[in-house]
Amino acid sequence: MQVRSGLVDAIGRTPLIRLNRASEATGCEILGKAEFMNPGQSVKDRAALWIIRDAEKRGALRPGGVIVEGTAGNTGIGLALVANALGYRTVIVIPDTQSDEKKQMLRLAGAELVEVPAVPYKDPNNYVKLSGRLAEELAKTEANGAIWANQFDNVANRQAHIDSTGPEIWDDLGGKVDGFVSAVGTGGTLAGTAMALKERSKAVKVALADPPGAALYSYYTTGELKAEGSSITEGIGQGRITANLEDAPVDFAYQIPDEESVRIVFDLLEHEGLCLGGSTGVNVAGAIRLAKELGPGHTIVTVLCDYGTRYQSKLFNPEFLRSKELPVPTWLERPGTVDL
Ligand code: PMP
């Protein structure tokens, strides 16, 4: 047993979990990097920590300073927890479409929440752009200054995965890794992990798993950024090449319909006891497709992005699922008590 010295040191070094049913169905070893086991229960704790450490190193973040960010939730939760541990404050701008559970967790962690209508990136009132302007204003008025985390275009985000996620996967498998699959929000996880693995072996194949409504599947297959459809999946679905995505070494791209990804989320919970969010369903569906592409006998790693309780009111809510014409797992319909 190791002692981790505080929250910051408890981020990362997550285990790889063999996904038994996906592995048996494909004849490959399909492994999930258990990012939901980070202290903030998501992959974004790593990006939050690296962004804060980078700002400290540059002298931009001073003791007691404010960290401002536009986030779908998980980055905000990571930032708020790390900020508490290191003596900063957080102001989080969040689109009002995000789950209540994530908002509640942000408030619980002491973040100041600014809820805004969800509008496209090109709109000046988009949550990301708004958070940038708010950071500029607060930098002038706050006694200890303020910074904009800017997770989409701040490459300290992908550096987290170049320095930690990728090397952890490589070392845990003794280099026996044939493929890596990830969805994209900012692109930090996909690009950073892919870069670290490819640096160690050019033979590692990298695949993007994209939900409908995102433009990257089209970009990596045709060269054109084009988005069609929509998805209930939170935290992923990108419409542009962020700075974090630039030069990401992507070999394959798959588009995963919600119908396919939610079934995988339910299957992982019902049959393997893994309670995970919607983006994990997209990732595991992508890993199964890459396994089929490469053939049996390969080892493919993907990311178990965050914990499922964050989505009880949506992804695990029969009424919500029915309203989106998505399958409802039988156990969600059963009454909660058992007659003995
Ligand atoms: N899954 C979830 C649930 C997320 O919140 C995020 C980040 N927004 C991702 C996946 C994607 O991570 P990244 O930003 O590194 O692309």
From TrEMBL:
Its cofactor is pyridoxal 5'-phosphate. GO terms for molecular function: transferase activity, transferring alkyl or aryl (other than methyl) groups. It comes from the Bacteria. Pathway: Amino-acid biosynthesis. Residues 9-306 form the Tryptophan synthase beta chain-like PALP domain. Keywords: Amino-acid biosynthesis, Pyridoxal phosphate, Transferase, Transit peptide. GO terms for biological process: cysteine biosynthetic process from serine. The keyword Amino-acid biosynthesis applies. Pfam families: PALP. This is Cysteine synthase A. It comes from Methylopila jiangsuensis.
